[in-house]
Amino acid sequence: MGNISVQKPSVTIKQIAEHGGEPSKFAFRDNIIAFSRIEGLEALIKKAAEYPTPYKAARMKRFYALLQKWQWYYHQGVESENTYLINMAVSNIVLYGGRALLAYNEMLFPFHKWFLRVLAEAEHKPEGILDLIDKVINTRSPEAVKQFVTAIDNFTNWGIEASEWASCVVTKEELGCSEAYI
Q1: What is the pLDDT of residues 126-155, one digit of tens each?
Q2: Listed residue (127, 182, 128) closest to 159, CA to CA
Q3: What is the rounded CA–CA span in Å between residue 159 and residue 46?
């Protein structure tokens, strides 16, 4: 047998607990320690899996603004008959509308593979939102997109008016500004 080397992890649980992104934090959800001699490991894992509530309002605002941005791109794609843009926009409309709802519920985004399953678990969401998501994805129609976006619009106060999305998105993306945990 060859030698087995153990490499030091590049990211620690403590770093994920303090600064980790949502998919990294989600990976610690429902973990069980079978055996450990590391004092405080259970508390550290629990902290790593917590939703970063200090950033909830900022995330809600940001994801709602991105939903509005992609709705605008969707309509641009429809007007110009640009299938690529329509497809990108539909996926992102669902993504950011859903992420806004996850933020509202203080639920971590698990990344794309488990996204809809986790969204289905959200206690507070517009009635029939998962059916609307299916309709948006399967039809890509202006009516379905409008129904989905309207359901998100009317669900809560997102901390930003729908018409203000550009200033929020431009500030973050195009000026190189960043906000922690967003």
Answers
A1: 999 999 999 999 999 999 999 999 999 999
A2: 182
A3: 29
Distance CA 83, CA 54 (A): 39
Cα distance between residue 179 and residue 59, in whole Å: 9
Q: Which of 153, 170, 166 shows the shortest CA–CA distance to 69?
A: 166
Neighbours of 82 (CB within 10 A): 14
Tell whether the model's pLDDT for residue 182 goes beyond 70: no
| Domain definitions of the chain by residue range | 13-48, 53-174
pLDDT of amino acid 1: 52
Long-range interactions of 173-179: CB distance < 8 A, separation 24+: 179/55, 179/58, 179/62
Three-state SS letters, 126-174: CCCHHHHHHHHHHHCCHHHHHHHHHHHHCCCCCCCCHHHHHHHHHHHHH
